Amino acid sequence: MKKIEHFLLSNTVWMFFTAILLLSYIMMAEAGKYSWSLYGGYTLSVSVLFAPVLAFSGFRRWLKEHLGRIQYNMLWLFCFVALPLLLAWGSFNLFEKLPLMPGDYESGPGPGGQIVRSVGIALLLVEMMIQLNGYLRKQFYSRQWLKRLSLERTILSVLLLIAVLGIISNNLLMENTGLLKSRTILQFISYTIQLFLILLGYYFFYFVNHYFLINKLLRQKGILYYLFGLAATILLFYPIISQLTTFLPIFDQENGGHGSKDSVFQEDTYAVIPMMIMLLSIPMILAIQWFKQSSEIANLEKEKTATELSLLKQQVNPHFFFNTLNNLYALSLTKDKQTPEVILQLSELMRYVIYKGKEEKAALAEEIKYIEDYIHLQQIRLHKKLDYQFEQEVADGHLQIPPLLFIILVENAFKHGVEPAERDSFLHLSLKSDKNSLLFTCENSVEENAANEKGIGLDNLRRRLALLFPGQHQLIVEKGQHTFKAMLKLALC
To answer: pTM of the entire structure?
Structure first.
């Protein structure tokens, strides 16, 4: 299922193939012969002829990455414009020459070319709809007013548009529709408002079904109460609404207009509409509620994740800062020359933790500088001989990563390896990165009989990685008799 989901979300070839299947069925219906051989023949023949279109849509992302803009656009024009013209043009009509159609297919001078032209136009329309859908989605997420456009406002806007188009079409039709034709601008506005009011009457049934019958009655009392509520709504309100609409002057009563002012309890072809609206709207309403609940759950999970990440950042070990302040106090008493340098570096480190630590991303170069400053300050503070190495192979220093990830491993190395060491100690760091991945290695010495303390550092890091890089990270910890090694791999693409 995961592979199918990924294919449907990341590829568009299935949309073009769906259009081919639909057109194949339509062509079979027009031929008046229904058989698997004819249906399959149409599908295979069209798929072979338009294979470049299917290949282009299937490898669209790869083509965008590896072709220049001009080359990509030229290939697009060939697939969606030039190819259909060539296939449908005279001697290039290959449809009937393919050995894929069954024996009962009736060929002729025109059908093949007409089929190719129809398929070419249909595939071009599918492509244009895909491009338009992408553009509209970008506009939706970039425009705040579109986000505030609720479903009800959208429906009312559509009803108003239908009312306007309804009056325009009524004026253009020669036959009698039961509605008066507008002769002036004022009549056009008046009749549009009246038709909109009639449509609002039908919207009333959707509104009641959505916000009362389903949300309240069905949820709290079950299907039996809902069915009775559905029937009661239609039987009670439809005659009243229908009677009220007959008083609108838009209806041409003399020439068979809708309804009668004397009685609405006569044969009425529109009486089935409220029932259809309420029944057909059930799947849509349930889908809306499911989507709303899913969005609320996703937002809550996102807020929970953000809160948890914030708390985890605040748990960065303060052990170092407290000890540095104590050492700074000792240096100030002896009027050591290193005191100003220590104060400056400590302020830079605290500034990074306080300000950069709140941000979602930080430049890799800034993170490296923070680690180097931290280690330099530790060396001043501890007055111990330390074999320190930091190997760096960074392709892009501007690469954005979550802040304060690597420092947890370095803090852990000092707290459990370097600080308690009675002999010479070492700290070897390695950072290798490209645009797709990152590998950070921290290896340090440990005392042979060091206590196996369990701090919050590594647990904190594991939880942050699970939230920030789900399924895209690997933290490997190797503990030897005299060494401790941690390797952190991140997939950045």
So the answer is: 0.47
